[in-house]
Amino acid sequence: MSHAIEIAKKGIGKVSPNPIVGCVLVKDGEIIGEGWHNEFGGPHAEVNAVLNSRRNPIDSTAYVTLEPCCHDGKTPSCVQFLFENGITDVIIGTLDPNPIVSGNGVKSLRNLGVIVTIGILEKETKSLNDGYNRWIKTGNPYVIGKLAKSNNGFMGVDNITQTQLTGHYANLETHELRASVDAIMVGKQTAIIDNPHLTVRHIQGENPIRVIIDTNRTIPLNLNVFRDKKAETFILCSNKKFNRHRTSFGTFIPVDENEDGLLSPNSILRGLGNEGITSVLIEGGPQLLNSFLNLNLIDKFYEFTSIEELENGNLRSPELNLDDWISDEVQILGKDKLVIYLRRELCLQV
Length: 350
Ligand SMILES: [Zn+2]
Description:
With 350 residues, the protein is an alpha/beta fold. It has helices at 2-8, 45-51, 78-84, 104-111, 122-127, 130-138, 168-179, 188-194, 224-227, 265-274, 286-293, 344-349; strands spanning 22-27, 30-36, 61-66, 89-94, 115-118, 142-149, 154-156, 183-187, 209-213, 233-238, 245-246, 251-255, 279-282, 300-306, 315-316, 325-333, 336-343.
């Protein structure tokens, strides 16, 4: 199953809003085939594993990270396919979280006389698809927050000056994180001041969709995200003033505006979910992060802290209320420290 998890990750960034899945076939104690879901609408992991099998898969055991499908979607059902190819045992990491199909794959396999085991490395197989798991159940994406701050708690000198706080290894980690999500979101101010590309560089990976918050559509369109053609760009704006439409700069998506004149975070997530975005990374600045933090809408948080203090800092970093968060992982990245937090109420649900 560990190997199935590893190969499932080869599908990251390529199959959304489908889940990533890995499958390994074992016969007489030897791996005879492996496959993963590699392309949206393409063959499922189980089919690829059987087709790539070095020996006849009859009487082999399939280790698959996610419950095989039993419905006729874009490809024939994997339950039927495994059965027809003579697989007698199926070991499943986690059930499909889609409430309409969850458990039905297992039931169908058992009805065909296949021996099924469920829940092997369940936590690990489940967390392969945090985005899909959330989206298929709620229609909203899984939300990851990220910030970089100085040792004395500032994200910058002020909100009109670009400040680079963290070093090379922290940047690599950020690009890894970008490659793992469907979309990356920043506020208008960050888009203007930093003029970022918001693409994946320094590592191998797919570019996520760029999402820019621009309530009143006043942002200059000569910024990199509108010009570089490296990835799709969504501009979220107020539905009081604008309709949905597409231009050469990107797609304008109207969502609800709050009384304070800012876009509603809940409506932003709903809008992104409607576009098939299952996971979104919020890269700041503090105003955007705080608006999501205040409503408990962030599920996972990456906090990079530089060893250095920022003199004349004025742009205060959001602070996590540690009653609400569990520190899940700590990494030292050169001169920076990364702490990954998980929202406590989500941890308690597992
Ligand atoms: Zn399938």
